Amino acid sequence: VQLQASGGGLVQPGGSLRLSCAASGRIIRISRMGWYRQAPGKQRELVATVTSDGNTNLAEFAKGRFTISRDNAKNTVYLQLNSLKPEDTGVYYCNADPLYWSGDEMVALNAWGQGTQVTVSS
Question: CA-to-CA distance for 47 and 59, rounded, in angstroms?
Answer without folding.
Answer: 5
